[in-house]
Each structure stands twice: as structure tokens, then as C-alpha cells.
Design brief:
Aspartate Aminotransferase, domain 2, alpha/beta, 16% strand, 11 helices, globular, Aspartate Aminotransferase, domain 1, eight-stranded mixed sheet
Length: 357
């Protein structure tokens, strides 16, 4: 049954909870969605080489141009940010929406940033019975700010670009969070290169695929007037020299090819995880075709299962902090096959179901 728009009260959801708080010493990390084995050595060396220039203020022009070229846009349509999370804060500072809507379940920082800036927020809750797939008709026609993730964290659903474009209209800012799009083979359904969608703002992150969560680097793609408004809300020199060096490096053809290969590996590893999870009676995987480096699971007693998994050495992400989800949901990061097989064995022990092969 589809749920109508819901006022953005806390509703018992901890919007400030993130997966890194689940990780502890000695635990296998399946709670954080950063690709393992990163950053690669060549990227770490490029970042290290930039440290000789720390005496000078950061100059982001070259990195900005590199991102613009990568997406076929002029430089004026790019803003570099200290991770995608800063972009949500800038949007909350720069915009004055009359009716802001966040499509959930999704990453909670957009709503948290809007609330912190004093903006009323409404929630559109997508239903598990619909595979958490977006229905544009659920979004109020007069919403002048709409935020949606693609692929969506934590559901891993990849919404068709055609559905997202139906949300665009004059007078509305449509924010599409594509933080995990570079982990999707071929970046199918991406809108980052589209310049013909009115009011479109696309957010990208370089922290997930490249293992740069501690460096903080991402960017915004939008029409020049929107970029200028966000830039006015941004502190001076918000992106460090090492982060700018990383952005330039990650836009190079060899890096893009490496990211594409990594996306293919993630897809194969996710298929292996899903195949192993089919052994468990009563366990449900969200969505028909997960398309992100994580999967959302529903199983009875998930809250206790998460604690039992910790005792067995595995950290997974509780999902009851995402609006629209409850205590029977967990998010699990996609890892290599050996790690997945170990996790499945632990999950069998924690649930008393499924073969431990």
C-alpha cells in the first residue's frame, strides 16, 4: 500500500546515524559503503605529491575544469565540494523552498541539512511492496524542492532516468543524489550529463569508489545560476589542495576506466551475495534488481541479528534510522566473494537458518 506524503517530524528516526558508527576494532566492515582496498596506490601517490603545495591557498580551477570536461559541461556548471554531504548543506543555505520534499527511504543528510537550516520538510515514503520504486505521482505538484537518490541509499534501487525527468518542472529544483552512480556498470540511468532538464541539480561523490571518505571530495552539476548561488553559500577554500588533486586524478581516462572495471567487479560480487542469500528462508532483499555496492535486507528479528553478527565478528548497518524502514531491516555492503561467504556463515549462525557452506 502506498504511503502519502508525511510531515518531517523526527518520528523516532535518528537522522544523524551513519554506518561508520557501526564499525569497531576487529570487525569485518559490512556497514560502510566505501570500496575496500582503496585508495589505489597511484591515487595515494598523486595526493601525497600535492602536499608540497600546502603553503598556497587551494586553487580549484583545474579540478573544476577536469570535472566539467568529464561530464561535457562548461566550468560554470560545476562546483567542487567537501564531499556530497557539504552540497546538501549548501543547498539548504542557498535555497528558500516553500515546499521541500525528500523521497525516502534514502540518505538522511539532505533532510537533516534542510531541517537544520529551518526549512519545513515533507517526506514521500516509497513502499517495500512496490520495490521502493519511485512513483512521480506521489510527489506533490507544488513542491518546489524535491530530493531523491539514484541509486538510492539504503534500498539500492536504481530509478529509471525517465521517471526522474518526470519530476522536473519550471519553478522546481530537482536534486538527484548520484553518489553511488559510478558503481553502476555503464552509469545507466545517470542524469549527470543532462543539461536539458529544468531545475536539475546532480550531486556526485568521489569518496565511495576511490576510498576518499577521509579526504572529503565531491561535486555539484547544475545550471550556472544555481552553481553561483551555491558557491556564494560556500566558505572560501572549502576544498583542500589534496582533495583537488584527487578530483583531477579521478577524472583522467585511465581512472574512469578503472572505475568502470570496479563497477563490473561490484556487480559480480553483488550477484554472488544475492545468490547466497537465497538460501535463507524468510529473508527478503529490497528491490527487484539491486544496483549499488550494498543491499537492503528484511528479516525477522533483524535488530538482534545485527548484535549477534557483531559477536561473530561482522558489522552491518542498522536500517531503522531511515524514514520508512523499521527494526526488521539491515543494510549490508557488497564485498569480495570470500568475505561474503564468511558473512553468510555468520548470518546462518545468527539466524539459525540457511546452509553454512
Amino acid at each position: 500500500m502506498r504511503t502519502p506524503t508525511e510531515p518531517a517530524a523526527h518520528g523516532g528516526y535518528d537522522l544523524g546515524h551513519h554506518g561508520d558508527t557501526e564499525v569497531g576494532d576487529g570487525l569485518v566492515d559490512l556497514a560502510v559503503n566505501v570500496r575496500t582496498g582503496t585508495p589505489p596506490r597511484w591515487l595515494a601517490e598523486r595526493i601525497a605529491a600535492s602536499l608540497t603545495g600546502l603553503a598556497a591557498y587551494p586553487d580549484g580551477r583545474a579540478a573544476r575544469h577536469a570535472v566539467a570536461v568529464r561530464h561535457g559541461r562548461p566550468d560554470a556548471e560545476v562546483l567542487l565540494t567537501a564531499g556530497a554531504a557539504e552540497a546538501f548543506v549548501l543547498l539548504a543555505r542557498a535555497l528558500t523552498p516553500c515546499r521541500a520534499v525528500v523521497v525516502h527511504p534514502q540518505f538522511t543528510e539532505p533532510e537533516a541539512a534542510l531541517r537544520a537550516a529551518g526549512h519545513p520538510v515533507e517526506r514521500v515514503l516509497l513502499a517495500a511492496s512496490d520495490g521502493f520504486l519511485l512513483d512521480p505521482a506521489l510527489v506533490p505538484p507544488d513542491a518546489d524542492l524535491v530530493v531523491v537518490g539514484n541509486p538510492t541509499n539504503p534500498t539500492s534501487v536504481l530509478h529509471p532516468a525517465s521517471l526522474l525527468r518526470r519530476l522536473a518542472r519550471p519553478g522546481r529544483t530537482l536534486v538527484v543524489d548520484e553518489a553511488f552512480m559510478d558503481a553502476v556498470p555503464g552509469e545507466r540511468e545517470a542524469l549527470a550529463d543532462r543539461r536539458d532538464v529544468p531545475g536539475l541539480v546532480v550531486l556526485r561523490s568521489l569518496t565511495k569508489t576511490w576510498g576518499l571518505a577521509g579526504l572529503r571530495i565531491g561535486y555539484v552539476l547544475a545550471e550556472p545560476a544555481s552553481i553561483a548561488a551555491l558557491e556564494r553559500a560556500q566558505p572560501l577554500w572549502a576544498v583542500s589542495t589534496p582533495a583537488l588533486a584527487a578530483a583531477r586524478a579521478c577524472m583522467e581516462p585511465e581512472a574512469l576506466a578503472e572505475a568502470a572495471r570496479a563497477a563490473g567487479t561490484v556487480a559480480a560480487d553483488r550477484a554472488h551475495l544475492l545468490a547466497r542469500l537465497r538460501d535463507f528462508d524468510g529473508l527478503e532483499v529490497a528491490g527487484d534488481r539491486p544496483a549499488a555496492p550494498f543491499v537492503l535486507l528484511r528479516l525477522p528479528g533483524a535488530a538482534q541479528v545485527r548484535l549477534d553478527l557483531r559477536a561473530l565478528g561482522y558489522a552491518v548497518r542498522r536500517a531503522d534510522t531511515f524514514p520508512g524502514l523499521g527494526p526488521d531491516w539491515l543494510r549490508v555492503a557488497v564485498r569480495d566473494r570470500a568475505t561474503t561467504d564468511g558473512f553468510v556463515t555468520a548470518l546462518s549462525g545468527a539466524t539459525g537458518r540457511g546452509p553454512a557452506r
